[in-house]
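Entry type: protein chain
Record version: 2
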Amino acid sequence: METILCVDDEPTQLMLLRLALTRAGYRVLEAPDGQRGIEMAIEHQPKLIIMDLMMPGMDGATAILHIKQNQTTSNIPILVLSAYVKGDQAKRALEAGAEELVSKSLILTDLIEKVKNYTQ
């Protein structure tokens, strides 16, 4: 069973992701902020990371940069799931090494298809 790390400060968003991804057959880890996301990525080496951009403390773009600069986590693909898929934060996330920006308004079944593309 492939492991996916979801990093988001909104408990409702984490719950929705957990339910959808678990139903699709994935093991889901959750982190409430960028710093914890980095720590969990290093510790668990997930197959994929789904990262929010706007979080208190360390934002998603900064967390992505740290994950991509770490030798043990640099090859893990990162999907940014955010309400902000345009603008400076989105640009910073892509420059930091995110594979793709996905709008939070995307239907969960479409998100699962994207996840499958990165985990197969």
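Comment: The mean pLDDT is 93.
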